[in-house]
Amino acid sequence: MVFTKAYELAQRIVAPFLEEGSLAVDATAGNGKDTLFLAQRVGSSGHVYAFDVQPQALEKTEALLAQAGLRQRVTLFEAGHEHLAAYIHRQIKVVMFNLGYLPGGDHAIITRPETTRAALESALELLEKGGIISVVAYTGHPGSLKEKEVLEELCRALDQRAFTVTHHAFINQAGCPPELFTIQKH
To answer: Quick check: is 16 in a domain?
Structure first.
């Protein structure tokens, strides 16, 4: 299998963590690809919570889920990922993030370092032992390098006895290729 997209690699990495009945979060629903993937993997007794600040993103995600017959497995929130803890009060097995902007949307609406830090801190608290967080960081837009810096700082500060952090980079891709971070809770 060839991985040319960071979100595909993220899905491949988190897939073994998901099973029938799992609870999962798509912290940045975007065009719905990760939300759909999670809904397929959690089964009929699991559930997915998906967040996005843009109605357009939630509409695309909802249409994708409806087409697949999986709409009932997902709760959509028109809210920023920094508000995870205000909406979710249960332990979560998987949390997926795609930082940046909505492909095909308004490129002025982007994730920001301060909201991403707050979202990750909440996700770490909600993550159950044995769970995993994936963060795809797109680095080609204004403010993205600062956001990646905050992400790296947070990841480096995690206690290695409680978390394992990995960093994957597509080092031979032109331009500003995305980078993938994973955080597994022991």
So the answer is: yes
Q: Which residues partner with 92 through β-bridges?
A: 127
Per-state percent for the chain, helix, strand, coil, to nearest 5? 40, 25, 35
Q: Domain range holding 166?
A: 6-185
Within-domain flag for 50: yes
pLDDT of 3 higher than 90: no
Q: Are 167 and 130 in contact (CB under 8 A)?
A: no
Domain CATH for 104: 3.40.50.150
The tokens describing 175, both together, are 């331009």
Residue 108 — very low, low, confident or very high, per pLDDT cuts 50/70/90? confident
Nearest 10 degrees: Cα torsion 140, 148, 131, 58: -50
Does the residue 1 lie in any domain?
no
Domains: count for the chain: 1
Give the position of tokens 């301060």.
Answer: 114
What is the value of pTM for the model shown? 0.97
How many other CB atoms sit within 10 Å of the CB of residue 125?
A: 11
Q: Could you count the other beta carbons within 10 Å of the beta carbon of residue 118? A: 17
Q: Which amino acid is at 29?
A: A
